[in-house]
Amino acid sequence: MLEITVKDFRQLTKRELYDLLQLRSEVFVVEQDCVYQDIDGKDQKALHVLGYKVDKLVAYTRVFKPGDYFDETSIGRVVVRESERQHKYGYDIMNASIKAIKQYYNTDTIRISAQTYLKKFYGNIGFKAEGEEYLEDGIPHVNMIKS
């Protein structure tokens, strides 16, 4: 069971910030072998959805209000530690993120830039692909929307 919290940037402890940057780097840079600028100056605008299991960050997203990333609210940097994926924590962290969007921004419309291989996963949560696939940091992506 995950203990999920939602915090804005100023509320993050140093440990939480370290944990989320470490997890993102572990998955997006090392595991996916993708050299890109993860620390992009947008974390300060985001809500951070942190999923801890026994004091270890195992799932994470960041959430943006309309206009801060896309015209709609959005969820990004969706990540689950590789050793924990069999527990389906991706659904838990995404559902918590959708709930946070409803609570903080009072909207149901959410846009994401999804890695193409995860279209089915996001489809199971109610997102629908929109437009053509495109490369982002050398990885195939597709825009998806939920409303």
Taken in chain order, the helices and strands follow as EHEEEHEHEE
In whole angstroms, how far apart are the ends? 28 Å
Q: Please report the number of helical segments.
A: 3
The rough form would be described as globular
CATH structural class: Alpha Beta
Structural class by SSE content? alpha+beta
**How many domains make up the coordinates?**
1
Please state the average pLDDT score: 96
Poorly predicted runs are none
Strand content: 35-45%
CATH superfamily: Gcn5-related N-acetyltransferase (GNAT)
Number of strand elements: 7
Per the CATH scheme, the topology name is Aminopeptidase
Note the main sheet: 7 strands, mixed
Q: Which value, in Å, is the CA radius of gyration?
A: 14 Å
- How are the strands of the biggest sheet laid out side by side? 1-2-3-4-5-7-6
Helix content: 25-40%
Task: Quickly give the CATH architecture.
Answer: 3-Layer(aba) Sandwich
Annotate the secondary structure layout.
Layout: E1 3-8, H1 14-31, E2 47-53, E3 56-64, E4 73-80, H2 89-105, E5 110-115, H3 119-124, E6 128-136, E7 139-146
Parallel strand pairs: 4-5
Antiparallel strand pairs: 1-2, 2-3, 3-4, 5-7, 6-7
